[in-house]
Amino acid sequence: MGKGLVDPFGRTISYLRVSVTDRCDLRCFYCMPEHFHDYTVPDNWLTFDEIERVTGAFATLGVSRIRLTGGEPLVRKGLPELAGRLSALPGITDLSLSTNANRLAQDAQTLKQAGITRLNVSLDSLQPRRFQLITKGKLGKIMDGLMAAKAAGFAPIKLNMVVMKGINDDEVLDMVEFCLEHRFTLRFIETMPMGETGRSTSDSHYLSLQTVKARLAERYNLLPSIMDGGGPAQYFTIGNTGLRIGFITPISQHFCETCNRVRLGVDGTLYLCLGHEHSVALRPLLRAGISDRELQATIQQALALKPLQHVFNNGHSQVMRFMSMTGG
Ligand code: SAM
Ligand code: SF4
């Protein structure tokens, strides 16, 4: 068995996204089909021991960066404990978290101590009423969470705004000003046709970020930039402000050729691409007593399934699972 994870197209996989729950305490209309009030962990989800074991196998194979995501990771009880265990794994140099920040005011300090360094926070609107319409949540709680994260010393804190035509595209400039004020990095995201809600959102509210970029360029001096751990975003700095803004454009300009990631679903399914169903079920193997070597070999073989690129742009969503299942 050779070392490392290289797919059939020569891409080295160094990044694993781990979904720790498909539940959420918000309900963004483009993401969540229904509201789960029950946060108990079903038997078919990976336990913390199992997540640690799979992550350890990936680390042995050369993966150094992990992102915890979901659903909303902070609704999974004991998440800081899991974070502490993963950040201590040999080979893991970067542990980050995607969150809606709804519970961050109480959790920020503990998460930082557990070894999470970087945060991505969803924020689609700065207007309380609109934020409530999009997410069913309260903007004030998110702001408290963001300020607690800042005080706890997370760096960078990246805000992710899904830009939707007729919903929040008039707030792009406000969001830039907000990030300038608070020194947050800002990333704009195009809607993707995931699940049924995603399909209809993407059909009726999709806005190419090329349009947004052009609009911003009229107002600001956008200088091409790069960002460590920046992922698929194309970054610019705004003049000499130091503010970085990124554009994540899976539809208008896909970035599949540089893809370095795979995803572990909450039920232990290893997904090779966000935009395809190609997957391998690891949970049954873990529970049948697979050895560490066999687990590593299974992960390496799974890479043969990684497709060249997603199929979001062909007019048909071929991905019926929701982002919250795979981990966005
Ligand atoms: N709950 C956390 C959060 O909101 O950041 C983590 C999980 S969420 C699924 C991760 C990211 O996926 C969020 O930034 C969210 O806006 C984005 N997302 C969800 N569904 C999407 C869709 N259909 N198109 C584009 N982005 C989507
Ligand atoms: Fe929850 Fe995040 Fe999905 Fe919004 S985007 S419903 S916060 S999982």
Distinctive features:
twelve-stranded mixed beta sheet; 328 residues; alpha/beta; binds iron/sulfur cluster; 12 strands; binds S-adenosylmethionine; TIM Barrel; 17% strand; single chain
Helix content: 25-40%
CATH classification, class level: Alpha Beta
Sequence of strands across the biggest β-sheet = 7-8-9-6-5-4-3-2-1-10-11-12
What fraction strand?
15-25%
- CATH architectural grouping: Alpha-Beta Barrel
Shape: globular
Number of domains: 1
The major pleated sheet works out as:
12 strands, mixed
Q: Give the helix/strand class.
A: alpha/beta
Helix count from the secondary structure assignment: 11
The string of secondary-structure elements, in order, is EHEHEHEHHEHEHHEEEEEEHHH
CATH topology: TIM Barrel
- In CATH, the homologous superfamily goes by the name Aldolase class I
Distance N terminus to C terminus? 31 Å
Describe the protein's architecture and organization:
The protein starts with 14 loop residues before the first strand and ends with a helix. It has 328 residues and is α/β, with parallel strands linked by helices. Residues 314-318 have low confidence and may be disordered. It has a single domain (15-326), classed as Aldolase class I (TIM Barrel, Alpha-Beta Barrel). Strands 7-8-9-6-5-4-3-2-1-10-11-12 form a twelve-stranded mixed β-sheet. The radius of gyration is 19 Å and the shape is globular. It has helices at 48-60, 79-87, 104-113, 128-135, 139-152, 172-182, 195-205, 209-219, 283-287, 292-302, 323-326, and strands spanning 15-19, 65-69, 94-99, 118-122, 157-162, 185-189, 222-225, 234-238, 244-248, 261-264, 269-271, 279-281. The structure holds S-adenosylmethionine and iron/sulfur cluster (SF4). Residues 24, 26-28, 31-32, 70-72, 100, 122, 135, 324 line the site of iron/sulfur cluster (SF4).
